[in-house]
Design goal:
By secondary structure, the protein is mostly beta strands. It is 9% helix and 30% strand. A 6-stranded mixed beta sheet has the order 16-15-10-9-20-21, with no helix packed on it. The protein has a 5-stranded mixed beta sheet with strand order 13-12-17-18-19, covered by helices on one side. Strands 1-2-6-5 form a 4-stranded antiparallel beta sheet, with no helix packed on it.
Length: 358
């Protein structure tokens, strides 16, 4: 009976305390937390926004918010992404909110493919694990300029469009690309990693017309002796596929740095008897960008080289290549430095350009 009395009393006390608690204002400063804990939702995990190689031993990563690096390592891989060695740890420094400079254990090899993987977290301990591939940075880049352009395709003669480039300085071609505003981004040609000497010509054939077309990446230049429009004394390269390239009536062709899209050289041309405005806005944009970069002497189609007569038997050929050896970048360029070659015999892929005009 006594035990029952104390149980009833205890229930009454608890009930009274509950009523009293309900009567007090929720925001009362005299109340201390008891049992109920309000938890903020975790902030979203950081996102990797940008990656760029800064040198042969440094990569810059930008995240959406300030991060703390928990782990970082890199490893060389094959084209099929098979790891070729043991991964090595990388050092890092957070230089700004969200900006991390990664220092590799060793300098990368030019053109070699690598995999970077790591984990970072923000101040709320929300983490992000990431993985990306990158190419060994070219810190010995050569200066290439456009030299000769041929449009048109002949299945009978097994000939196609080509772009010949000229090395003003010695160095490596890794990280450079050819862009046609008419073709767009899907047909960009990216150079492999090749060491070249000042004065070298390279002919990029914009189609692979047979299995006999072989990129000359080493020291032999006679691997395509049976292929038309190749040269035994200079290097020939081939773009993949058989699709058509370049704009017959008008185009803007650029040499750019693949990663930054910095423009290094340009040719703007148009058949002015047929058109008085760029057919594609990409050509207009590319021409303006070439002018802004200082590699073309005008920003509109009026400044373009007059390409009337530009066919398979008449190329557009640059005339100031020798003078570039004593010039500095950006190199002098504009419509007055180009000619339309006289005939098929004056087409010279891989050799000094003809001076005979149509």
């Amino acid at each position: 009976m006594k035990h029952c009395f104390f149980s009833i009393a205890f229930v009454c006390v608890v009930f009274a305390f509950a009523i009293l608690s309900m009567s007090l204002p929720v925001g009362c400063s005299s109340m201390k937390p008891s049992g109920l804990i309000l938890v903020r939702p975790h902030s979203s995990s950081p996102k990797l926004l940008d990656i760029r190689t800064q040198s042969a031993s440094e990569i810059v990563c930008e995240f959406s918010q300030a991060v703390n690096v928990l782990a970082l390592e890199s490893v060389p891989v094959s084209e099929d992404n098979e790891e070729l060695a043991c991964a090595t740890a990388c050092e890092s420094e957070c230089v700004e909110d969200g900006k991390v400079v990664i220092t590799l254990a060793e300098k990368t090899q030019i053109g070699q493919k690598y995999k970077m993987r790591g984990t970072v977290e923000n101040s709320d301990k929300s983490s992000l694990s990431f993985e990306f591939f990158f190419l060994g940075c070219n810190d010995h880049r050569c200066n290439l300029v456009l030299s000769e352009i041929r449009d048109g395709y002949s299945s009978k003669k097994q000939e196609c469009e080509f772009i010949e480039v000229y090395a003003v300085t010695s160095g490596n071609t890794a990280g450079l690309e050819l862009y046609s505003a008419n073709d767009g981004d899907e047909k960009i040609y990216r150079f492999p990693a090749i060491e070249v000497n000042a004065g070298d010509f390279i002919t990029v054939h914009l189609r692979t017309l047979s299995e006999n077309c072989v990129d000359e990446l080493g020291g032999r230049f006679d691997l395509n002796a049976k292929i038309n429009d190749t040269c035994r004394s200079s290097r020939d390269l081939f773009a993949e596929g058989t699709a058509s390239h370049l704009g017959g009536d008008s185009d803007v062709i650029l040499i750019r740095v693949s990663e930054t899209k910095q423009i290094l050289d340009a040719i703007c041309y148009a058949k002015k008897s047929k058109i008085d405005a760029w057919k594609k806005k990409e050509c207009d944009n590319a021409c303006k960008s070439a002018y802004a970069a200082g590699v073309w002497d005008g920003e509109s189609i009026e400044s373009a080289f007059d390409a009337d007569g530009f066919t398979m038997t008449h190329t557009i050929a640059r005339q100031n290549l020798k003078a570039l050896k004593k010039a500095s970048f950006p190199y002098p360029n504009g419509a007055t430095y180009w000619i339309l070659t006289a005939n098929r015999k004056e087409i010279t892929p891989g050799k000094p350009n003809s001076t005979k005009s149509k």
